[in-house]
DNA sequence: CCTTGTCATTGCAAATATTGAACGTTATTC
DNA sequence: GAATAACGTTCAATATTTGCAATGACAAGG
């Protein structure tokens, strides 16, 4: 694997390739992710360089992806970009995902009742979370996050959820914790205390740490025993989250997450 | 290629595999599409059988896809399904697609002004179209179609658009035309006349053929010279589309499609 | 107008992913 | 409850894809 030419190529790709018995797929996925990141279409060489691939291999992968309508090829400029095929897959996933289907009405109700933005997220271990459902109240200032967004696992209220109920050791948590970016980062001890509190109350709160002035509440959802698979999240601006509004919100969110867990495990 | 065991396996996959220099990707795409179709998670053998793949190869492809979070694997049931990774790709595509970005506000305005459902679609030759943008008025009966949906190319008003402006020969059109399913199918001559009218007026209409009682209007959008790349579509129920409403809608839709073509080609 | 650099693309040899059969395990049927 | 079928998985041989160097096309710059 000729790699160290460029400082940071793609360590994830590199490790995926070593072991896999279908490396073309790792390459394809890496290409799709790269094309997704870039707003401008890219040429073969640029892609190959950035991912540490051989140009010819990269070309063949791109051609195969283009055939499947997952990437678009412009014959004039010879540039590649994501294509609409990914949309179709996403829609199909949304149609069949139980969590999305069941969570959406709950999120809608919560958003309307409390006048805030609510999210449903799927948890991927200590790596990251993906927002798979969203609802916004009609209120003036709404914090917008789109379905499909990825966030680091341990950040904000969902992060405390994962830490509280995932059964991870401090040794696993600390290095990840230290890489996070917050508006107002808590200390490790402070954070640990908040995680403990989340474990005791069953629900996690981020009071302006991740984004200052913004309070985030997250409740875990279990699909199976073990660690939580999803989370319900409510995001509000200071004023809406002060006073007695917050306890009531926590209670309601917790109720929703419990009901959801029951439905999913059945 | 051991194929003819099962009546209809996947001819598209079969042809893709023959020529490709990255067949694993054709296989992966076929698997993703299959998993998208099915609402229930599937086992390795079931997938392999349905697609005419060798189980072991299928397993390796699935493992690779799972590693990339494009498919989810349930270790208990040993079943595979689509995973949320496809959502992230779709979101990235939406963020960067010019047509989506530019069409959305136009569609919103049209939907509100005329009280109907509007769509933006990307055209894929004579094969199919994919809905990439949508807007719904708040009105009572709204015809819902989701972003990411695929339709046969030649059906409804968009089909007449494609036939009118794509420069296809009758020999290419007719076999495709005959495979379509309509609520009230037009005859070939009838349809040809409507296509000609669309070519003359610049805009296509489907008056209750595709879905009875529903009128669909579609205007072509050009990204480059040659054939149209996209279409703007308005869908309304009978009453809203009768009288003088329809001419005004056609005029407005046509104006929007022209302005969009200008912006995209720039 | 020629040179130089970059780009996409191709041919060939070598590394390796695919195949099909065999294995152990789970689920189904009698 | 035993037998059987189906499943997921592993392994070694082979057909294939990958990687590299070379080619042709193109644009920028001298």
From TrEMBL, chains A, B:
Presence of the UniProt keyword Iron-sulfur in the record: no
HTH iclR-type domain mapped to chain residues: 22-84
Claim: RNA-binding is one of the keywords in the record: no
Taxon lineage: Bacteria, Pseudomonadati, Pseudomonadota, Alphaproteobacteria, Sphingomonadales
Assigned keywords, A-Z: DNA-binding, Transcription, Transcription regulation
PROSITE patterns with a match to the protein in the record: HTH_ICLR, ICLR_ED
PANTHER family: HELIX-TURN-HELIX TRANSCRIPTIONAL REGULATOR, ICLR FAMILY, HTH-TYPE TRANSCRIPTIONAL REPRESSOR ALLR
Domain IclR-ED: 85-266
The protein's name: IclR family transcriptional regulator
């Amino acid at each position: 694997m000729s790699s160290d030419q460029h400082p940071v190529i793609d360590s994830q790709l590199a490790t995926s390739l070593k072991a896999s018995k279908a490396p073309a797929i790792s390459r394809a996925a890496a290409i799709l992710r790269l094309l997704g990141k870039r707003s401008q279409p890219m040429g073969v060489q640029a892609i190959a360089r950035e991912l540490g691939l051989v140009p010819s291999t990269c070309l063949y992968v791109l051609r195969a992806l283009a055939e499947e309508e997952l990437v678009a090829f412009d014959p004039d400029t010879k540039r590649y970009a994501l294509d609409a095929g990914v949309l179709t897959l996403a829609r199909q996933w949304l149609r069949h995902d139980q969590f999305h289907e069941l969570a959406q009405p709950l999120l809608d109700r919560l958003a309307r009742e409390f006048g805030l933005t609510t999210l449903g997220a799927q948890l991927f271990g200590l790596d990251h979370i993906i927002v798979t459902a969203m609802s916004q109240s009609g209120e003036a200032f709404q914090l917008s996050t789109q379905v499909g967004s990825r966030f680091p696992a341990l950040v904000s209220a969902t992060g405390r959820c994962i830490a509280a109920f995932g059964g991870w050791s401090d040794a696993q948590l600390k290095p990840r914790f230290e890489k996070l970016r917050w508006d107002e980062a808590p200390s490790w001890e402070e954070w640990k205390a908040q995680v403990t509190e989340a474990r005791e109350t069953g629900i996690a709160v981020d009071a302006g740490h991740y984004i200052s002035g913004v309070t985030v509440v997250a409740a875990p959802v279990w699909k199976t025993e073990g660690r939580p698979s999803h989370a319900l999240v409510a995001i509000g601006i200071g004023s809406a989250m002060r006073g007695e509004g917050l306890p009531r919100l926590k209670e309601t969110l917790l109720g929703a997450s419990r009901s959801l867990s029951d439905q999913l495990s059945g």
